[in-house]
Amino acid sequence: MSTPQALQTFAEWVASIRGDEASEAQTYVNRLLQAWGWADSVEAGTTFERKIPKGSLAGGMGKADALIEGTRATVLIEMKSRGKALEPHFPQLQRYWIYLAPKPVYSVLCNFDELWVYDFNQLVDEPLVKLRVADLASQSSSLAFLSKSEQPVHFGLNQIEVTEAQARSMGELFRRLRKRGEKSGAFTALEAQRFVLQCVLSLFAEDRDLLPNLQFTLALDACQGGQSSYDVLGNLFGEMNTPGITPSGQFRGTPYFNGGLFSHIPRLELLSDELDLLSASAEENWQRVRPSIFGNIFEASSDDATRHAHGQHFTSEVDMLQIIRPTIVEPWEERIEKASTFAELEALRQSLIQYRVCDPACGSGNFLYMSYNAVKDLEVSILRRIEERRTAKKGRDQLLLGLVTPLQFFGMDTSPFAVELARVTLMIARKVANDRLGLTERDLPLDNLDNNIRVADALFTPWPEADAYVGNPPFLGGKHMRLNLGDEYVERVFQRFPEVRDSVDFCTYWFRLAQENLKQNGRAGLVATNSIRHGKSRRASLDYIRENGGHIHSAISTQPWSGEANVHVSIVNWSRDAAGNYWLDGVEVPAINTSLRSSVDVSKASALKANKGNCFQGVIPVGVGFNVEPKTAAAWIASDPRNAEVVKPFSMGSNLAKRPLGEPDRWIIDFGDRSLEEIETYPLPFKQVVDKVRAERQMNREPVVREKWWRFKRTNAAMRSALAPLERFFAVGEVSKWAIFVPCEKDWLPGNKNKVVASDDFYILSLLTSSVHRTWMHVQKGTLEDRIAYTHDSCFETFPFPQIVAPELVQQIRQAMTTLNDYRNDLMVAKNWGITDLYNAYFHEPASKLAKYHQTLDALVLKAYGWKASEDILRNLLDLRNP
What we know:
Elements: H1 3-16, H2 21-35, E1 46-52, E2 62-68, E3 75-79, H3 90-99, E4 106-110, E5 114-118, E6 129-132, H4 159-184, H5 189-207, H6 215-224, H7 229-240, H8 272-282, H9 291-309, H10 317-338, H11 342-353, E7 357-359, H12 366-388, H13 393-398, E8 409-413, H14 416-437, E9 453-455, E10 468-471, H15 481-485, H16 487-496, H17 508-517, E11 523-529, H18 535-540, H19 542-547, E12 551-560, E13 568-575, E14 582-584, E15 587-589, E16 615-617, E17 627-628, H20 630-639, E18 647-651, H21 653-658, E19 667-669, H22 676-679, H23 683-692, H24 694-697, H25 703-707, H26 717-723, E20 728-733, E21 735-736, E22 742-745, E23 749-750, E24 754-757, H27 762-769, H28 771-780, E25 782-784, E26 787-789, H29 792-796, H30 807-831, H31 835-842, H32 849-865, H33 873-881
Parallel strand pairs: 3-4, 7-8, 7-10, 8-9, 10-11, 12-14, 18-23
Antiparallel strand pairs: 1-2, 2-3, 4-5, 5-6, 11-13, 12-13, 14-15, 16-24, 17-19, 18-19, 20-22, 20-24, 21-26, 25-26
């Protein structure tokens, strides 16, 4: 039987049954899968009544009706009896999805006659498609992910693609207008921006029936026909800013929108190509445009350089959900589930009307938009429960009116462009929510949000009082702050936060301020780069939260960023009240520490005195003119052997990871701490530095770098002194995939991308190579994307080495390391590999020599500590530090 025939047979069977959830839901799922070619639900890998911890709206154990894992995409199905409305059960479906691990690709609400198909990774609040069972035979492609065969899946027009296209089109319009305005002086960039936003709101309004009779499209048609956009669009926007309804004339019937966005109406004469862009956008159905992401894309298309300079990156809907649900939605869901009387529900409703949310780095308003919709969903949930307890028709009609408004939502951003866009996004939110939820509250006039969303710097402005702070503060590594924000601003930041003068990510300051502004029963959820789990950034943010009464209750430790920024992020939700449950990376855990781990908390481990002065960062040259081609270096040394004193192989992170034996592939002029008079005695190197370094250094902002232009910015005399008596030293790349220390020749000069250990003893190397040290390293490390950032202060200086070890065992360990190192060297040379290639190929292969040599070494190192592999190594290390 063909699939259409099988689906038609299924539909006929469905029509013949009662459609009772309790007695027929499992049979329904089984027959549906059979229609798609499976023998039965067992073959399709179906689990009925799948238990999901914290899956119930009350916060306890939930039971999903069916989880199908044998199909090409995992599917979650929640069944309801025939005739039941599906919309009220959406929060339950979404909560199941949140707490399932791994998460299903598709989630389905079904009442026997209808199937609503969701993909929460695309749209978090709307189904991709609503299908009637009676129509399945002709619309099978929208459910083909259930097929046993590889049938194509198609859901029709993709809202995200539509949104991206329209946002970029409006961004292009703004760019053209801004460029033309700058050239002619006829209007400013801010006027161009306001004009485009007035057009954007009109496009939304027209397709959601706020602006009747296709008035914006007809106005564009009139302009295309020869009338002046200066007059036509200017007059339309003027009517939209006039109280009442336009009684007559070209724009008869135009309602009053508000005095915020339309309080000032830039009158622009559009060129033909600009009109064409607007007219093409007007032909699109703007009901399919997602306001939650439109602003992000529009802003990026309009002013990408500024956003990048300030570290402002954008958040997908599904990532916003990882903050909005635990910080805003779930505490309310659990309170609503516990309310059993009309009075309790009415009290909750009144509390919700007073509930306030703030995004202190709001950008284009995506978090505010999503938060508003989430709170409206909660309000409707309360209204439905109240309605169930009412009997009078008058009462039921009254309950259709929602009272939560955009005026309960606040934001700030330093970009006037972003703030205007955020206001428009939140203005649109009310109408979208009314349509989606069937509410009868007013759509117009739009709320004036000028006092809610303001142009302000969150680091220097009092924050609005709120019950929840959410958002995506700007990411900007501490080392890049001066370059991107300027010396004056950075000094202001340091004065504002005198206790945080280290090189920390810019976003950490928002974490501190959110904690300081949090009410006793308040919550916060922010996105950060995953460096916030480590070192100085952690101490400035998550440690500060913990030390000042905060409790992290839900977090994603690290994940690739959904935006265009090439970073990995952490998502952190916390509260002042202690949490009853803790969820880390989708799994319930007993606690979450400030390293965003559930294991032993080593974040407070300070440097050990015995380890100080043994691990260093390499030199920091500052000036490409110090670099020397290998052939040139060889020629200089051949002409005068003394040049070898100041011309050296230069080791950076790349050679340690990628070249056989870690050998440097570059050379550098290194005058160390020599005086100007001394370096003149090396004519060839001296001439190059004069010609290629001096002029560049004269422009440097640091006086010592300008004055001593022949020296490195950081010559690192302490490291040189520690390495001088050694036959070799050990080094690891500052950032690498494996973080493997390798032996280095004594004449190599370590650069700043090296972390250097001042030892030539293979016993020390063995300890740094062992699983014991790597276990410690992984909880103390920094990260860059998905790579390890080995930090000398947190990884090495805090690490407790074995205290008293028998000399015979020390020698055994030393020999095991020598054997491992010889094997690695031979293989790297034979295959022309670096250490990364070697470990990629063999480390996770249990039968490889590399794995076996490591196993031997690890067993001996554990013996030196007196531990067994089955023990909690982190706990043991922490105890060893604190006997």
